[in-house]
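Narrative of activities, Objective 1.

The group set out to show that a structural description can be obtained from nothing but a protein's sequence at a throughput compatible with the screening campaign. Below is one input-output pair from the validation batch, recorded exactly as produced.
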Amino acid sequence: ILEALQHPGVPRVFECGVLGDKRPWTAMEIIDGPTLGELTRETPLAIADLVLAIRTIGEVLEHAHARGVIHQRLGEGAIVRTHSRHAPFTVVGWGSAGTRDGAAPGDPARDVGTLGALAFRGLTGRPFTGASARDEAPAAPLELATLIDEMLSESSVPAATDVRVRAAWLADTIVPRHTLPEMKAIDPFAVRINP
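Output recorded for this entry:
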């Protein structure tokens, strides 16, 4: 299955096979990085980081769903890698997560709902328990909270393609607003240049 997913957000599979005692094995790219749970353990993610994570994981889900790979159960144990704030995340682990119980196994909406639960945790710093992202994070950009609430909806969950498109729009419009204040807050006199 992983060999069929040729995407920069999915680790490469080098080889796989079956041992003499019939146990399967896989040699995959090793990715080191924090888990989603570690990134949100103490505090919510920065808005810019959360939007980029949703966009990239949405791209991975869109890629997987187009190839018939559904219900990966992306979880807080997943590892993400990024080289810089604006580089794409790499989704390494698929683990247990607070999945939506309303979607049947094999339903792409389940994957999107699980991404919504992770995004809720990234926005609020708390696990999803049925509350609205708009209510739990009233200072968050309305478009972001609305997307998260729609991913968590029991009735009309957006497709992974729609999540990716909307998160890309958020990255183009909201991320610059949330990164510029951080850059302006740097004291130019506090920066030292080594000779």
